[in-house]
Structure to design on (451 residues):
């Protein structure tokens, strides 16, 4: 069985992209990061608090034990060691300078308290006690043992409470972060689903724009602007293809009609007539195709040869060409100016403007080239009917003819001024149209002069 090259469909690719593992989502990563950070901070804070609490509890117990030991030492000095034997709540012993126990309370009769462990916690009779030693008269010393099992129970309880509260805080932070991030990213999910459904034939759709006014809302607005540009570009491209097809269909239909007429009725036409029609329509098709290629290169921003170009030479060449065709042209306003660009493309500016003026002029054309500060200015005037102010922007669009019949009869394809606008824009200049001193239209091209 022959092997087949399986490729997922657009729907299948979209469905697999939508199933992102939970642990790899931004929501999970933000929640994990926030939880880990809070857990580390709270654990460190709990450890620090426990250490401070333990120190404070120990200091308080030590101060209380030292106070009690001082009281007992005063009592011994006043009443003698016999006062120790009557104590039933304290673990206290009196030792002489040799370390021998000379008196002890009821609870301290079963062993000897360590005199050399002052301020330390030791085990006495199976319980932890704090040893405090106080000097008395006759080199006697009072050794007091204070039970600290209550302190340890208090610290243990505090530790369990801290651990429980730390765990609770971490869980609450994780839950709140998960909820907040999920709520914040919910518009992103809607945007993603909407964008996933947008195709080349559904560019009219737009993503929902949240009313939050945050970065996600700004992202949605930016994406809608991008979709507007894509929609406009696709619409322009479809219109361009439709117009180009229509323009190419006309000369082809003309040639086909004459060929069919010559075949069906040879006596109705001659070979010279057929050849003339084919030549004229072929030239029109060639001009149209060349214009389309130039516009395509301009749209793709393909690199062009750049060099220093004498703009006045290009204008003078067009003046000479029109005069040779019998057109009255005034070129007295042409002065020497150099610009930087592609000489072939800049030549098309002069050629297309000259042809447009010749097509619409009644009897006269004027061409001028001059320098205006940092710009080179080329003007082309005619004494025709001019261009209405409402149409002066539209004439630079593709396949636009304000006088459809005359433009087609004169061989115009509707691309000449569009090419002028594209070349001027690619060269860093501007082009505009206004009223001419001759009574018709004036086209003004401004280009940066050569350095």
């Amino acid at each position: 069985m022959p092997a087949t090259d399986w490729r997922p469909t657009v729907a299948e690719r979209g469905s697999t992209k939508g199933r992102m593992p939970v642990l790899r989502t931004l929501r999970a990563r933000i929640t994990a990061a926030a939880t880990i950070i809070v857990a580390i901070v709270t654990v460190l804070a709990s450890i620090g608090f426990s250490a401070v609490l333990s120190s404070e509890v120990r200091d308080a117990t030590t101060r209380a034990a030292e106070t009690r030991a001082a009281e007992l030492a005063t009592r011994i000095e006043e009443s003698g060691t016999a006062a120790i034997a009557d104590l039933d709540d304290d673990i206290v012993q009196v030792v002489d300078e040799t370390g021998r126990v000379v008196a002890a309370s009821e609870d301290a009769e079963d062993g000897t308290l360590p005199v050399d462990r002052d301020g330390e916690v030791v085990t006495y009779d199976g319980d932890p006690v704090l040893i405090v030693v106080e000097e008395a008269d006759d080199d006697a010393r009072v050794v007091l043992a204070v039970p600290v099992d209550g302190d340890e129970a208090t610290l243990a309880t505090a530790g369990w409470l801290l651990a429980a509260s730390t765990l609770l805080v971490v869980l609450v932070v994780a839950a709140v972060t998960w909820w907040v991030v999920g709520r914040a990213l919910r518009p992103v999910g809607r945007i993603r689903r909407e964008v996933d459904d947008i195709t080349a034939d559904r560019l009219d759709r737009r993503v929902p724009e949240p009313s939050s006014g945050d970065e996600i809302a700004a992202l949605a607005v930016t994406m809608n602007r991008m979709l507007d540009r894509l929609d406009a570009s696709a619409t322009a491209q479809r219109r361009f293809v439709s117009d180009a097809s229509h323009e190419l269909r006309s000369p082809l239909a003309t040639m086909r009609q004459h060929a069919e007429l010559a075949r069906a009725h040879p006596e109705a036409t001659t070979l010279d007539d057929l050849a003339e029609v084919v030549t004229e329509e072929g030239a029109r098709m060639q001009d149209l195709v060349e214009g389309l290629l130039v516009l395509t290169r301009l749209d793709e921003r393909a690199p062009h040869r750049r060099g220093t170009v004498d703009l006045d030479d290009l204008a003078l060449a067009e003046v000479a060409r029109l005069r040779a065709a019998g057109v009255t042209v005034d070129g007295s306003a042409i002065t020497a100016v150099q610009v930087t660009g592609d000489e072939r493309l800049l030549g098309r500016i002069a050629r297309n403007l000259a042809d447009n003026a010749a097509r619409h002029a009644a009897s006269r054309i004027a061409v001028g080239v001059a320098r205006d500060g940092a710009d080179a200015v080329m003007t082309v005037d005619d004494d025709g009917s001019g261009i209405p102010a409402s149409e002066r922007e539209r004439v630079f669009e593709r396949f636009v003819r304000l006088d459809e019949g005359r433009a087609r009869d004169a061989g115009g394809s509707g691309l000449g001024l569009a090419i002028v606008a594209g070349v001027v824009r690619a060269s860093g200049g501007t082009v505009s149209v206004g009223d001419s001193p001759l009574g018709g239209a004036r086209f003004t091209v401004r280009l940066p002069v050569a350095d």
User: Anything to note?
Assistant: The chain has a mean pLDDT of 82.
